[in-house]
Amino acid sequence: MSNEKERLSLRVSPVTSYRLHTAYRKSGCRSMNELAEKAIGFYLDYLEASNADDFLPTALKSYVDGRLGKLEERLSSLSFRQSVEVDMMAGILADGFRLSEEDLRRHRA
Questions:
Q1: How far apart are CA 47 and CA 43, in angstroms?
Q2: pTM as predicted
């Protein structure tokens, strides 16, 4: 790839200009052009990517997966408890109405 570069005219808002100047100083880039080229390249790669996993840090992805796993366990536990309570209530109602096993099977079908 050659070192030739094309000049582009770019107009940005004052806020974006300030952010560019601030990021340029913190980024370690040798020039604002280098920072702008890296930022544009990153955004274009993001747009072309079919999978956002390429851009999520591994630690963040791992944290989110862990939290979702805990949520899944909690929801499963609550669902099981609710099923047990509903079954107990059905048993109490069946006893209260003196329904036989045969009556229960017939009503469930």
A1: 6
A2: 0.43
